[in-house]
Amino acid sequence: MNKIPVTSPLLPPLEEFHPYLEKIWESKWLTNNGQFHQQLEQELCDYLGVKHVCLFSNGTLALITALQALRITGEVITTPFSFVATTHSLWWNNIKPVFVDIEPETFNLDPKKIEAAITPQTTAIMPVHVYGNPCNLEAIQQIAETYNLKVLYDAAHAFGVEKNRESILNFGDLSVLSFHATKVFNTFEGGAIICHDGKMKRHIDDLKNFGFRGETTVIAPGINAKMNEVQAAFGLLQLKYIDNALARRKEIAETYREKLSAIKGIRFLNDLPSIKHAYSYFPVLIDESEYGNSRDELYEHLKKQGIYARRYFYPLISNFPTYQGLPSAAPDNLPVANEVADKVICLPIYPDLEMSDVTRIVEILEDRNK
Ligand SMILES: *Cc1c(COP(=O)(O)O)cnc(C)c1O
Questions:
Q1: Whole-number mean pLDDT of the chain?
Q2: What is the pTM of this model?
Q3: So where's the catalytic machinery, residue-wise (predicted)?
Q4: Which among 42, 56, 165, 369 has the fewest CB atoms less than 10 Å away?
Q5: What domains appear along the chain, each with residue ranges and CATH number?
Q6: Which residues surround ligand 1 with Cβ inside 6 Å?
Q7: Measured in angstroms, how far is the CA atom of residue 86 from the centroid of ligand 1?
Q8: Torsion (CA) 194, 245, 282, 169 in degrees, nearest 10
Q9: How far is the C-alpha of 135 from the C-alpha of 337, rounded, in Å?
């Protein structure tokens, strides 16, 4: 029985990576804005359709630095339905997270509930494009303008996502990508901040390099969050394969949807109109009374069959010990998020996943339903 993980990294042929490594050995330039770093920033700008890309050693440091770059303090409105790094980045900046519930249709921060959570201490909104599905960009923009708040998008799942043929990374003050091994586009570890003007780009580039501007001037207490040349070179190679990888993911998502629609008690997200999706995850919601098994029973059963589906995102961030004492973390403030976290399970999706394995996974799901 072959084991099927929830995700598996996109790895181009190894021999195609050797020439990049040879160049690095020749130049002896290993990090600090090297040739591959510069080239990857440019190629990502072109590929994604954004003005400026600042590469980082990982997505979490990019989030922490983005909050510094925008000088965000006080309270920030955010979603509990995300990977824990979203809220941790606030904590590392001594910012108080204020949790607001999510929409039942997209699992993203619910704009209708944001205004009630704004206080005189609120300085920003930090939404997440969960599973790569775009947030309600216009409604969030409107609220930010009305209350003079910054918007920082955690776009870790949203590589290449477009709305009406425009990158959703162009919305908000800044957006942050993750290039972790488990993400659609990876540089082993890595990440980026997307920004819209050259002055901000320079500021972020200084912050990720200890605050140095030039050889002897330090403009701020920066950090070391630079991407190295091996990571950047891998990103350049990976970019050659990304369109194929995205096409494969789309095919798998469509196959799941077609086959799962006949099973009672399983709900999945459909593609949204005028959106180019990344298919970074394939979440389904299990309705226990209709399906006949709880989400956790299904999770355990799949595991026994060698299928490592994952309960992203469970537990909710607001239910972790660090955050559960916050007033906004109370479960009755977050009914939709708590319900989704209890029902959701992400099925395996990655470019190398065989269609026969997709069929096998669906058959197991069907079987439990009988
Ligand atoms: C992966 C992820 C991060 C963290 O990115 P790293 O590159 O692993 O540090 C942040 N937010 C979300 C929503 C993520 O999924």
A1: 97
A2: 0.97
A3: 183 (proton acceptor)
A4: 165
A5: 14-239 (3.40.640.10), 242-368 (3.90.1150.10)
A6: 58-60, 82-83, 85-86, 128, 154, 156-157, 178, 180, 191
A7: 7
A8: 10
A9: 15
Return the DSSP state at 273.
T
- Expressed in angstroms and rounded, the spacing between residue 39 Cα and the centre of ligand 1 is 23
Query: Sign of torsion, CA 338 277 124 145?
Result: negative
Contact 16, 10 (CB under 8 A): no
3-state SS assignment for residue 362: helix
* Of 164, 156, 168, 159, the residue nearest 66 (C-alpha): 156
The closest-lying atom of ligand 1 relative to the alpha carbon of residue 182 is: 1
Residue nearest atom 6 in ligand 1 by C-alpha distance: 59
Q: How far is CA 112 from the centre of its chain?
A: 23
DSSP single-letter state for residue 109: B
Distance from the alpha carbon of residue 155 to the mean position of ligand 1, in angstroms: 9
Q: In sequence order, what DSSP letters do the residues of 113-157 get, joined into one string? A: GTGGG--TTEEEEE-B-GGGPPP-HHHHHHHHHHHT-EEEEE-TT
Tokens 């001594």, located at residue: 94
By DSSP bridging, strand 150-154 and strand 174-178 are parallel
Strand, coil or helix: 224: strand
Return the active site residues. 183
Tokens of 34: 């090297």
Ligand 1 atom with the smallest distance to the CA of 178 is: 7
Please tell me the residue having the least CA distance from ligand 1 atom 7. Answer: 59
Write out pLDDT tens, residues 19-61. 999 999 999 999 999 999 999 999 999 999 999 999 999 999 9
Write out pLDDT tens, residues 205-250. 999 999 999 899 999 999 999 999 999 999 999 999 999 999 999 9
Give, for ligand 1, the residue of 108, 130, 180, 186 to mutate: max count of ligand atoms closer than 8 Å to Cβ.
180
- Structural contact between residues 107 and 133, judged by C-beta atoms closer than 8 angstroms: yes
